[in-house]
Design goal:
This protein is α/β, with parallel strands linked by helices. It has helices spanning 43-51, 78-96, 109-121, 139-156, 163-171, 192-200, 210-223, 226-229, 253-265, 287-300, and strands at residues 2-7, 13-19, 27-32, 54-59, 102-107, 127-131, 237-243, 268-274. Helix 2 crosses helix 3 and helix 4 (139-156) runs antiparallel to helix 7. It is globular and about 50 Å long.
Amino acid sequence: MNTFKHTASDGKAVHCYLWATSSKPRAMIHIAHGMGEHGARYDWTAKQLNEAQYEVTANDHRGHGQTAETLGDFGTDGWNRAILDLNEILVQAKKEHPDTPLILFGHSMGAMMAQQYVTRHGEAIDALILSGSLGAGSPFQMWLVQSITQIERWRIGGKKESSLLQNLIFGGNNKGFDAEGCTGYEWLSRDPAQVTEYVSDPLCGFVPCPMSLCDLFSAERANWKAESVARIPTSFPTYLFSGNADPIHNGMKNIDRMLELYRLQGLQVTTQFYAGGRHEMLNETNRDEVIRDLTGWLSSLELD
């Protein structure tokens, strides 16, 4: 793994990672990580993809990892800037490797970013991979979460830590898993070693500040309006995989709602759901099976 800095159009230094292949790659895959983590956590996944001859890059989003000045603070208009960072990185990659297919991989919050990215810049990529997606919440759910976040921003200020929002985002996720451990993060994986590694990582486990969450939820609410979904190109294939015990998709209801919206738009979506799997399927006890399924789907694509 090598690291480099991408200088964004507003001057922000975005920390990036590269896992290069030893010969010409079949495609380039850029990973957008989830909330409260960072790109280096995808080292194992990237190395597996390297073995299948895919070059991999990732970046630490604003407010995350080594890009952050303060963990959880995306900055002014930070959510939209983070999506623009993705586009600038991908456009640069395409400029440097014009004949190599480009694939965007998003996990959890990164899947939210990727799903919003394709409504704005979908023509820039050749395929989309979604891991641990929240799916599409109901209009009422999205309104309620956005409203609570906005009220909390007014109450305590935009950049202060909020125990209320920490509980709103992560608090209920461990329900049903508490008996397995005492970290509060057993919902991430059935593998205790992976959970311990996450909890021990000082760059993991935080929730964005109220200002950043307001930006995020406002964009997410707009993203599932019919006019936004209609902007997604139908030309590229999508692979969606998730654990069916992942608490963030509301018992698969949000996934089903999202798939119906995509079906109506005519998108090509291949799905893979794992019985008993939790939020981070690529850190799960059956991750060898998960990566094998993913690389199998990738090899089936006609991207040349």
